[in-house]
Write a structure and sequence with these properties.
The protein has a five-stranded parallel sheet, sandwiched between helices. It is built from seven helices and five strands; from the N terminus they run βαβααβαβααβα. By secondary structure, it is α/β, with parallel strands linked by helices. The protein is globular, with a radius of gyration of 16 Å. It binds adenosine-5'-diphosphate.
Length: 184
C-alpha cells in the first residue's frame, strides 16, 4: 500500500533527476506502488510546449505541473516530478499546493555537468548559442531545507535511487520491503 506524495527532484540540467526518477519509478512499479513520472523534458513538449525560459514562463511551467501532481497525489499516487525548477518561491508554492511533498535536491558540480554534458547543452550555453541556461547565465536557487540531497558526483545511480526509496519508507509513504538489499 502507498500514501500519495510528490517527490520533487530539483537541480541543474544533467544532474541526474530523470535518471534517478526512472529508477525509482521502475522499483516502485515492481512493488505494485501506483507511481507516475512527470518529467521536465516531456512536459515541455506537451502540456507546456507554449512556454519558454523566462522567469514568468518557468513559474507557469511549475504551476501547471503542480496542479497535475496535486490531483494525482490526492488519489494515492507516488508522483516523481523531475524539473530544474530553479526558483525557490516556485518550489515552495508547489509544496503548498500539493501538501504531501518531499523535496530532493539532485546536486552535481558544474565541472561534472560540463564534463557529462548529456544533452550537449552546456557546450552550446558556454558558446553563447543558448541563452538563459540555468547555472550558466540564469540563476539556480539552491533548496534551503531539502528533505534529501543527492550528490551525483559521488554516488552511483543505484545508490541515489535507493536513498529516495529509503526516504519514502522512512516517512511512511511506502511500506518497507525486506527484499530490498540493505546498503550497510
Ligand atoms: P537531468 O534529468 O537532471 O537533466 P539526466 O538524468 O538526464 O539529468 O542525466 C544525468 C546523467 O548523469 C546521466 O548520464 C547519468 O548516467 C549520470 N549519473 C552519474 N551518476 C549519477 C547518479 N548518482 N544519479 C543519477 N545520474 C547519474
Amino acid at each position: 500500500m502507498a500514501r500519495g506524495v510528490t517527490v520533487w527532484f530539483t537541480g541543474l540540467s544533467g544532474a541526474g533527476k530523470t535518471t534517478i526518477a526512472r529508477r525509482v519509478e521502475a522499483a516502485l512499479r515492481e512493488r505494485g506502488v501506483p507511481v507516475e513520472l512527470l518529467d521536465g523534458d516531456v512536459v515541455r513538449q506537451s502540456l507546456c510546449r507554449d512556454l519558454g525560459f523566462s522567469r514568468e514562463d518557468r513559474d507557469r511551467n511549475i504551476e501547471r505541473v503542480s496542479f497535475v501532481a496535486k490531483l494525482l497525489t490526492r488519489h494515492g499516487v507516488v508522483v516523481l516530478a523531475a524539473f530544474i525548477s530553479p526558483y525557490r518561491a516556485a518550489r515552495e508554492a508547489a509544496r503548498r499546493e500539493i501538501g504531501s511533498f518531499l523535496e530532493v535536491y539532485v546536486k552535481a558540480s558544474l565541472d561534472t555537468l560540463v564534463r557529462r554534458d548529456v544533452k550537449g547543452l552546456y557546450r552550446k550555453a558556454l558558446a553563447g548559442e543558448i541563452r538563459n541556461f540555468t547555472g550558466i547565465d540564469d540563476p539556480y536557487e539552491e533548496p534551503e531545507q531539502p528533505d534529501l540531497v543527492i550528490e551525483t558526483d559521488h554516488e552511483t545511480e543505484e545508490e541515489s535511487a535507493r536513498r529516495v526509496i529509503a526516504l519514502l519508507q522512512e516517512r511512511g509513504f511506502i511500506e518497507p520491503v525486506r527484499a530490498w538489499p540493505r546498503s550497510t
